[in-house]
C-alpha cells in the first residue's frame, strides 16, 4: 500500500471470499486501487487471468508493482472504466468492484475515495455489463441503504442479481455491507445467503 491509495479494508476481504471464481476465469477489477482484491482472488484460484482498471495514476502504479512483485502476469490499465475504448466488450468472465459507496451530495461522507464524484453506481454497472460476456458475472460490495439503487443499476445494465449476502458486525447490529453478484443476461431469481 502507499500513501494516497485507498487502503485494504474488511469489505475487500469479504468480497474476495464471496465472488464466484472458476478455473481459467478472466477477471477485471474495476477501480482496482492497489490491486489487493485481485491478489486475494488469485489466492483462491491461481489460474485466473487478472486485469485491473484504475483512474488514479498513483494507485495504478502501486497495483502494477503489486502484480509484478507477486509474480502475477496480469495487467493494470490506467484509465477511466467508463471509456468504452479502454477494454474490449465481452472479454471477461468476472468483473469485481469495491466502489465508492456514497452519492455526491448525498449527505453521508466516507471521504473522497468513498464518494461517487468520479463514477456513479449506474456508470460502474454499465461498464461491468459491457465488459463481461453473456453469462459472465459481476460481484460488488455496497451499503445496505443503497440496495434499491444497486438493484436498479444492475438491471439497467443487463445484469440480473443472483446472489446476495448482508454482513453485520454482530447479531445485535444492523447490516453494514451488502455483497451482490449478478449475471449478464441471467434469468430472474435471487438467492439470499446467510
Please explain how this structure is put together.
By secondary structure, the protein is of the alpha/beta class. About 25% of the residues lie in helices and about 25% in strands. The chain has five helices and eight strands, in the order αβαβαββαβαβββ. An eight-stranded mixed β-sheet has the order 3-2-1-4-5-7-6-8, sandwiched between helices. Helix 1 packs parallel to helix 2 and helix 4 (about 120-130) runs parallel beside helix 5 (about 145-155). It is globular.
Helix and strand topology:
Blueprint: H1 10-18, E1 26-30, H2 36-44, E2 49-54, H3 57-69, E3 75-78, E4 92-97, H4 121-131, E5 132-142, H5 147-156, E6 159-167, E7 177-184, E8 191-193
Parallel strand pairs: 1-2, 1-4, 2-3, 4-5, 6-8
Antiparallel strand pairs: 5-7, 6-7
Helix pairs in contact: 1-2, 4-5
Cross-sheet strand order for the largest sheet: 3-2-1-4-5-7-6-8
The geometry reads as globular
Question: DSSP helix count?
Answer: 5
Beta strand % = 25-35%
Residue runs with pLDDT of under 50 for 5 or more positions:
none
What summary fits the major beta sheet? 8 strands, mixed
Cα(first) to Cα(last) distance is: 32 Å
User: What's the helical proportion of residues?
Assistant: 25-40%
What is the mean predicted local confidence, pLDDT? 90
Order of helices and strands: HEHEHEEHEHEEE
**What is the alpha-carbon Rg in Å?**
15 Å
Number of strands: 8
SS-based class: alpha/beta
Jot down its keywords.
5 helices, 27% strand, 194 residues, 8 strands, single chain, eight-stranded mixed beta sheet, alpha/beta
Amino acid at each position: 500500500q502507499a500513501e494516497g491509495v485507498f487502503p485494504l479494508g474488511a469489505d475487500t476481504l469479504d468480497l474476495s471470499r464471496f465472488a464466484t471464481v472458476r478455473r481459467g476465469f478472466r477477471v477485471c477489477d474495476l477501480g482496482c486501487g492497489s490491486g489487493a482484491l485481485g491478489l486475494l482472488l488469485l489466492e483462491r484460484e491461481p489460474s485466473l487471468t487478472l486485469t485491473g482498471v484504475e483512474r488514479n495514476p498513483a494507485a495504478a502504479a502501486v497495483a502494477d508493482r503489486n502484480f509484478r512483485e507477486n509474480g502475477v502476469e496480469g495487467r493494470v490499465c490506467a484509465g477511466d472504466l467508463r471509456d468504452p475504448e479502454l477494454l474490449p466488450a465481452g472479454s471477461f468472465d468476472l468483473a469485481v468492484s469495491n466502489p465508492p459507496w456514497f452519492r455526491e451530495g448525498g449527505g453521508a461522507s466516507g471521504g473522497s475515495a468513498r464518494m461517487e464524484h468520479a463514477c456513479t453506481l449506474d456508470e460502474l454497472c454499465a461498464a461491468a455489463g459491457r465488459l463481461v460476456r453473456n453469462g459472465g458475472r459481476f460481484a460488488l460490495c455496497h451499503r445496505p441503504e443503497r440496495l434499491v439503487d444497486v438493484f436498479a443499476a444492475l438491471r439497467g445494465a443487463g445484469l440480473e442479481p443472483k446472489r446476495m449476502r448482508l454482513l453485520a458486525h454482530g447479531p445485535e447490529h444492523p447490516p453494514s455491507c451488502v455483497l451482490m453478484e449478478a449475471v449478464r443476461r441471467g434469468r430472474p431469481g435471487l438467492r439470499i445467503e446467510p
